[in-house]
Design brief:
By secondary structure, this protein is an alpha/beta fold. The chain is built from four helices and five strands; from the N terminus they run E-H-E-H-E-E-H-E-H. Strands 2-1-3-5-4 form a five-stranded mixed sheet, covered by helices on one side. The N and C termini lie close together (8 Å).
């Protein structure tokens, strides 16, 4: 029997910076699916204020724009990971995992869904290529969610 009861998807980024709005776009697409047990949050960056909520989740996904992946990369985060999700985020996912273990004695199951963005200038719309990558990420995330609830 599956023990997953709560999944939180955090979409990070700034919707006023073009493709940096990928995380928010992904959250909106997942919200439309109305999946029981899945909550979405649109945030500008990772920070320790999220820990109180994160420790109550069985599974966490952080969707974020990246300029360093080909299209989409979905991977687990360990507390040994020291790099930030992207250069504009000051709290790394790995540090959040480590902090949860040290402060709350709670291991986090956290995954990053890094999605290729191309234009991070001041603009409200995403590029067509970034939207295509974001749609691919939505499919990957939905597949993961379905596998967790089976």
């Amino acid at each position: 029997m599956n023990t997953i009861k709560k999944i939180i998807l955090y979409g990070t980024g700034n919707t006023l910076r073009g493709d940096d709005g990928i995380g928010a776009y992904i959250c909106q697409a997942i919200e439309k699916q109305q999946i029981d047990g899945v909550e979405t949050r649109q945030i500008t960056q990772l920070n320790t204020d999220l820990l109180d909520e994160m420790i109550k989740a069985d599974f966490i996904i952080v969707a974020d724009a990246s300029s360093s992946v080909e299209s989409v990369r979905f991977y687990p985060v360990s507390e040994n990971e020291t790099s930030a999700v992207s250069s504009s985020h000051h709290m790394s996912a790995g540090l959040l995992v480590k902090t949860a273990r040290l402060l709350y004695q709670k291991p986090l199951t956290l995954f990053i869904c890094a999605v290729r963005g191309y234009d991070f200038s001041l603009r409200e719309e995403m590029t067509a290529d970034a939207k295509k990558n974001a749609d691919q990420a939505v499919s990957i995330i939905l597949g993961k969610i379905r596998s967790l609830f089976l």
